[in-house]
Backbone:
């Protein structure tokens, strides 16, 4: 497999736990890209998922629910880049 997607669910109350992300990434290695989605509402959570081993994150609902879409995307990107 080239990619694995861990999904907590669209609009999930809680994102995929960092421990799960770390365990899956360790099991699949660097060659397989790990995508994580669901419940990622802010830059801190996005950064936490990247720090845990996510190569990519997926957001959707949170961007659809805010008026300042650009600001929210910038927040998420900043959180990712800081990790």
Residues:
């Amino acid at each position: 497999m080239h990619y694995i997607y861990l999904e907590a669910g669209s609009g999930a109350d809680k994102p995929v736990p960092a421990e799960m992300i770390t365990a899956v990434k360790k099991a699949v290695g660097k060659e397989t890209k790990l995508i994580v989605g669901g419940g990622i509402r802010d830059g801190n959570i996005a950064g936490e998922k990247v720090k845990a081993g996510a190569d990519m994150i997926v957001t959707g609902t949170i961007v659809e629910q805010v008026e300042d879409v650009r600001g929210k995307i910038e927040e998420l990107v900043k959180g990712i880049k800081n990790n």
Q: What stands out?
A: The mean pLDDT is 94.
